[in-house]
Amino acid sequence: MNRASLEKRPAEVAAMFDDVAPKYDIVNDILSMGQTRRWRRIVFDAVGASAGQRVLDLAAGTGTSSEPYADAGIHVVACDFSVGMLRVGKRRRPDIDFIAGDATSLPFADNSFDASTISFGLRNVIDPKKALREMLRVTKPGGKLVVAEFSHPTFAPFRTVYTEYLMRALPAVARKTASNPDAYVYLAESIRAWPDQDNLSAWLTESGWDAVAYRNLSGGIVAVHRAVKPSAAPSPKPAAN
Ligand SMILES: C[S@@+](CC[C@H](N)C(=O)[O-])C[C@H]1O[C@@H](n2cnc3c(N)ncnc32)[C@H](O)[C@@H]1O
To answer: What's the CA gap between 118 and 2, in Å, rounded?
Structure first.
């Protein structure tokens, strides 16, 4: 995988992440200027799961986004389709349940999780709306969805500076630190092309999620969207004789 392009196929995306897996977490920390830990804490609080509950962390990669749940005694299932990422994760956290699976066709039963979350992964899924519907299917009625994703800074002058950083500095830093710099050119391009906060909210609603809301982090560099799976429709009353 050596060309940065938004027109990737699932196998190419998986191969790209297999490639970056060994250095993924360290490069992430450098490029986000140490903000990822704070963002992850906010996502964990938004999920609001308690010990004993079952949470799906989709596109979990090396499981860094899954760790806060495992540390809190929550049964987290870290699912990803890059075996390279899962392998790095399993080596580091053998206690976490890592499962290989595609976000657009999840290997889980209906209504099997108390909550579902996806951090910095939805943008990489080739058909993100299908993934949102799959997360709806596997989440219990009344259960939460939390999506953390890069987004669009809300303050226009900052947006201009940030876009410049994304398109120039990020690939340059990645060239010095990462094993596959093209993956970071793809990262920059995919962030720029990603829907803004309101459009992503609309996608969630279209996919069947209720009570959609979001919160901007770091001026909108990241947005955390949350939603709830509608409770099951009441069973139809038996027809009167
Ligand atoms: C940027 S990493 C995020 C990893 C982790 N959630 C985190 O916050 O560090 C994105 C992950 O999405 C995964 N991914 C992309 N498309 C996927 C799909 N269709 N099904 C499952 N995982 C997918 C990639 O393999 C990669 O590990």
So the answer is: 26
Tokens 């108390």 appear where?
114
pLDDT digits (tens, 9 = 90+) for 2-40: 345 567 788 888 988 888 888 777 777 766 767 888 999
| DSSP symbol at 154 | S
* Pocket lining: 65 vs ligand 1, CB cutoff 6 Å: yes
Q: Which residues pair with 68 in a beta bridge?
A: none
Ligand 1, atom 23, lies closest to the CA of 59
Closest residue by CA, ligand 1 atom 4: 61
> Is residue 172 a contact partner of residue 158, using CB atoms and an 8 Å limit?
no
Residue 110, SS3 per DSSP: coil
First to last CA, the chain: 67
pLDDT at 237 over 60: no
- In sign, the C-alpha dihedral spanning 26, 29, 31, 33 is negative
Specify whether the CB–CB gap between 219 and 38 falls below 8 A. Answer: no
Q: Which residues are annotated as a binding site?
A: 62, 80, 102-103, 119
Tell the residue nearest (CA) to atom 27 of ligand 1. 61
The residue to which tokens 């790095």 are assigned: 88
DSSP string, 14-80: HHHHHHHGGGHHHHHHHHTTT-HHHHHHHHHHHH---TT-EEEEET-TTTTTTHHHHHTT-EEEEEE
Q: Which fold has domain 10-228?
A: Rossmann fold (3.40.50)
What does the pLDDT look like over 144-196, one tens digit per residue? 999 999 999 999 998 998 888 877 877 777 777 666 777 778 878 888 899 99
Q: Which 8-state DSSP code applies to residue 5?
A: -
